Amino acid sequence: VLEPDDPRIASALGDLGDVSSELTHYDAAIGYYRRALEVLQKGGAPDPSLVGSLRVNLASALRYKGAIGDALEELDKARTITERALGPDHPQLATIALDTGAAELDAGRTSEALVQFQRARDLFTRALGADHPNVGTTDFRIGEVELAQGHVDEAVASFQHALDIWQAKLGPEHPSLASALDGLARAQLARKHPADALAFYQR
Fold first, then answer.
1. How far apart are CA 24 and CA 190, in angstroms?
2. Vertex 76, ends 48 and 124: CA angle to 5°?
3. Whole-angstrom Cα distance, residue 5 to residue 94?
């Protein structure tokens, strides 16, 4: 029989939270993640990597529920824990920055989102290399912000760079390419070039 503060109970609760999130049962997921964190805190000296991961997942569920402020608070806690335990350049911090940027973008704060996406890009580049697919993901998100801010030329460059990385690393049939092509099409519509936009949509 496991003790009530056994870390394996927290891991199991985290897994239940993950499944609930996949099923879009966000209230249930939030409950599981919070219970998992409580178990770890009661046990003392919890694994910082697990705590950080649970807080990131909790933030994601909160964000999908529309609780952006609560999500950003959890992400800030996750960043502090992760940075203290793993150092300032760990790729897990890039994931946290990416999620923070997404939450800021949901809140309509494009400048704050851009700072976070650029931070994620720098961290992923240092840790994984400039042509890693995760760098493509950050380029795509940067392009979304640039397009929202009306910086169409910059957005085109970011979407194109994401497309180039994904195509080279994931193959020409990978679903991610559709996101980059959609971004390029939206940029062409912003330029009032519907024929060029159609060409990207048809790809």
1. 33
2. 75
3. 30
- pLDDT by 10s per residue, the chain, length 203: 678 778 889 999 999 999 999 999 999 999 999 999 999 988 776 788 889 999 999 999 999 999 999 999 999 999 999 999 889 989 999 999 999 999 999 999 999 999 999 999 999 999 999 999 999 999 999 999 999 999 999 999 999 999 999 999 999 999 999 999 999 999 999 999 999 999 999 88
Start-to-end CA distance of the chain, whole Å, equals 57
Could you tell me where the DSSP H helices lie in the chain?
A: 7-22, 26-43, 48-64, 68-86, 91-106, 110-128, 133-148, 152-170, 176-190, 194-202
Cα–Cα distances (Å) from 155 to 10, 121, 143, 182, 186, in that order, read: 42, 15, 4, 12, 10
Please give the structure tokens belonging to residue 123.
Answer: 């961290």
From 98, 186, 97, select the one nearest 141 (Cα to Cα).
Answer: 98
Q: How many CB atoms lie within 10 A of CB 55?
A: 24
Specify the pTM: 0.89
